Amino acid sequence: MLFNSFEFVVFFVIVFSLYYKSYNNLKFQNTLLLISSYVFYGWWDWRFLSLILISSVSDYIIGKAIDENSNKIQRKRLLILSLFINLGILGFFKYYNFFTESFTDFIALFGFESNPLLLKIVLPVGISFYTFQTMSYTIDIYRGKMNSNKNLLQFMTFVSFFPQLVAGPIERASHLLPQFNKKRKFDVFEFKEGAKQALWGLFKKIVIADNCAFYANQIFENSDSYPGSVLVIGVIFFAFQIYGDFSGYSDIAIGISRMMGIDLMQNFKSPYLAENIQDFWRRWHISLSTWFRDYVYIPLGGSKVDSSLRRSLNIIITFTVSGFWHGANWTFIIWGALHSLFYFIQTAYSKNLNTVKILPASLVKVFNITITFIAVTFAWIFFRAESFTHAISYISEIASSTILVNPLSYFKEMGSSIQPIIIVISLIYLSVFEIANRNASYSFQVGHYRTPVKTLIYCSLLLLLIFFRATNGAQEFIYFQF
Question: Which residue ranges run through the membrane (predicted)?
Answer without folding.
Answer: 5-23, 43-66, 78-97, 117-139, 226-244, 313-338, 358-382, 417-436, 456-474
